[in-house]
Structures are given as structure tokens and as C-alpha cells.
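Annual report, structural modelling task.

Input specification for the inosine 5'-triphosphate complex:
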Amino acid sequence: MRQLLLATSNPGKVREMRAMLSSLPLEIHDLRDLALDLEVIEDGSTYAENAAKKAQTYAAASGLLTLADDSGLEVDALNGEPGLHSARYGGRPDATDADRRAFLLARLQGKPRPWTARFRCVLALAFPQQPCRFFEGVCEGEILPEERGAGGFGYDPIFLLPALNRTLAELSLHQKNALSHRGRALQALIPYLTRLIAEDPAKCV
Ligand code: ITT
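The model returned the following structure:
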């Protein structure tokens, strides 16, 4: 069985990626299964640079075909913040997801609504010792002043999809994957991975 490593320490990302990739003929590992925990400093100036750094570091350490995700929330009224810094937003290094949501809402107080925003996700697929391939997905929406829903993770309870009048946290895992930034990036990756497995199996250990 061919193998793929999901190089993310975020359990929400792992759940969403596993759900979408489970139909492929691949044995999927995550960092917990392999007890891999390396420090990767996310100091790139783009999502792609950070995603590539994570994917290449873990591909080199594991020898496996490796997928990493760098993503962020871009709020127009905050000039695109928190963007690349979404995971570290909130003023304190030990901030929780709830702290980061509260911090974001505090920054938006007094600014005229709607607070339009988008999630962006860049996936990097790395083969040991080879350049990465990138797949991107975007999800447009709006920030709500109050939390709604208990699903998902991160900023999901305050991210509204106006056409559905639901936040991402009010959707099932499968509904979120059909519409989200990460789901869209994975939808672009799947045909590529399917071809790779069929045509060049040596690349998947
Ligand atoms: P890895 O780097 O280990 O993958 P991370 O959580 O640090 O995990 P990022 O550096 O890509 O990931 O930071 C992205 C942050 O953006 C993440 O921590 C969330 O706060 C937010 N985010 C990304 N995707 C999201 C989603 O689908 N729903 C809600 N928030 C999301």
C-alpha cells in the first residue's frame, strides 16, 4: 500500500484531510501515528513558502510523500489580517482558538459591517528530495460578531457563509469539506494524486 504523511499538528486539519483522502488507495499517516514532532519555523512571506517548509521538513525526516497545509483568515476591514499570522494571532503565544476569536472581534469593534473575509489554504505536496507541488483553495464569507455552532475549529464559529446563512462551525465535516478553502484545495489535489498513484507509483513509497 502506498503511503502519505499529513504534516500538520492541527487535529482539525487532520480530520478534514483524512475524510477527503480516505477513498484513495493510500495508507495515510499523521504526525501522531509516527511520533514525529519537529520544529518548523513558519517565517515565509507567503502561504506557499510556509507550506513547502513544513512539507519538505517532514518528507526529509520520514522519507514519505508528505502533504502540508498553510492557511489563514483574511479580513478586509483589518487590511487582510490575521492572514499568514492566523495561528499566532491573539497577543499571547499560549492563546487558545477562543482567545484568538475574541481578539479578532475586539479589533473589529466599531468598524462598519459586513465584515467581509476569506479563508485561504495552500497545500504543498513534497516528495523527498524533489520540489513541491501546490494546490490552493479560497472560501469567501463574513465575520459575525457572535459565535454560532460547535463544529470545526479555529475561527469557524464566527465565519459565516452568507448564501447558506450558516457558519462553518454549523456544518458537518462533509459539508465543510464541500465548500471550505481546505476542501477546495483538496479537490484540486485529488486528481493529481490519483494520476500519480496510477502512473508513477515509485514516487509513493
Ligand atoms: P500546522 O502549521 O501544524 O498545520 P496550524 O494550526 O499552526 O497547524 P497554520 O499555521 O496554517 O496551522 O495556521 C492557520 C490558522 O488559521 C489555524 O491555526 C486556525 O486558527 C486558522 N484556520 C485555518 N484553517 C481554518 C479553518 O478551516 N477553520 C477555522 N480556522 C482555520
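The chain is about 30% helix and 25% strand.
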